Amino acid sequence: MKITAAVLRELNQPLSIEELNLSDPRANEVLVKVDAFGICHSDYHVVTGLAKQELPVVLGHEGAGTVIQIGDGVTDVKVGQNILLNWFPYCKQCPQCLVGNTNHCKTYTEMLGQGKMLDGTTRLTDSNNKPILQLSGLACWSTHVVVPDITCTKMPEGTPPEIAALIGCAVTTGVGAVLNQASVHEGSSVVIYGAGGVGLSIIMGCVLAGAEIIIAVDRSEAKEPIARSIGATHFIKAGKDTVGNVKELTDGLGADYAFDAVGNIEIAEMLLPSLRERGFALLVGVPPTDSKIQLDATDVFRQEKRLTGTIYGSADTGVDFERFAQMYLSGMLPIDKLISKHYKIDEINQACEEMLNGTIARGVVTF
């Protein structure tokens, strides 16, 4: 079938909106009509080359849609069901899965990480019959996708597709970081560096956890209203004395928890100085490949500060996707407030530009 997709053919160049050929699903594969997808900074790391990916490729790992055809052997989803596309499926059988670390399963990462289906091929070709790769095996910056059935998660009835799409990455990464990895405690103080989709999701998670002081930091003052609407108690425009400002808001002590929601090395090196004794710092945003950070070892030793990371919110996506959707439906997670603007697929380059300049929290393309 003919589809429309956003294709990256050269690094640091605009995406091209192209008509591509999408082949039918094979065994254990599913054809999905994409209903909504999010504009995530992780996709743009491919554009800049920070994330290594062979080209040409259709981007997009944060999407949701409707099943319209299934291949042989598919039993977990049915035609007509609304599903979320999971860029990090797990096998339930490897040593990591068996001890509950499903976000560290490596069973499917080799092929999906190359932008291929599990059989090492792709379902997309261009007008010259040349293969086009599928980011994370999904390629949901398109009107339709064929994906492995293990990447499809059924959503609770009534979950809007744009909400499901954001649960597929930003929400699970941010809320999961708070609840699953940091275990933010009631009455605590928290600072979040970066108020994009992930940072705002961290704020939502901190509200759920009962944090008392929630400080959002961002370079763009335009983020302050949405950060406060979601639950931030304070907002700091990033500047030369940001750490000093954080301490002023926490009685000179520093915060109990500090989160880097951007994946920026300068921010990462600000986390421990932002903490009080025995504080907990968490890298949530994706840092550049092979990057290094410098720490004050004495500060870590004497004040017993801790620094670690989290991938995909340390989530069990088989449980947390539905849990977060139910929280949205019950009013506990205001995920809809993350969405600053809706776009059409032919506005994808504008959406990326507005994400990069900080004028939006999360942009969503809908069909």
The helix/strand series, from N terminus to C terminus, equals EEEHEEEHHEEEEHEHEHEHEHEHEHEHE
- For CATH, the homologous superfamily of the largest domain is named as Medium-chain alcohol dehydrogenases, catalytic domain
CATH topology name of the largest domain: Quinone Oxidoreductase, Chain A, domain 1
Q: What is the terminal separation in angstroms?
A: 17 Å
Query: How much helix, percentage-wise, in residues?
Result: 25-40%
CATH architectural category of the largest domain: Alpha-Beta Complex
Outline the structure in words.
The protein has eleven helices and 18 strands. It has 367 residues and is an alpha/beta fold. The protein has two domains: 2-168 and 314-366, Alpha-Beta Complex (Quinone Oxidoreductase, Chain A, domain 1); 174-312, NAD(P)-binding Rossmann-like Domain (Rossmann fold, 3-Layer(aba) Sandwich), CATH 3.40.50. The longest helix is centred in the middle third of the chain and has 22 residues, at 161-182. Helix 4 crosses helix 5 and helix 4 (161-182) crosses helix 10 (317-329). The strands form three sheets. Strands 3, 5, 6, 9, 10, 17 and 18 form a seven-stranded mixed β-sheet that branches. A six-stranded parallel β-sheet has the order 13-12-11-14-15-16, sandwiched between helices. The protein has helices at residues 41-48, 95-98, 109-113, 161-182, 197-209, 224-230, 242-248, 265-271, 297-303, 317-329, 348-356; strands at residues 2-8, 16-22, 29-38, 57-58, 63-70, 82-85, 124-125, 131-134, 144-148, 152-154, 189-193, 213-218, 234-237, 255-260, 275-283, 306-309, 339-343, 362-366. The model has no long low-confidence stretch (mean pLDDT 96).
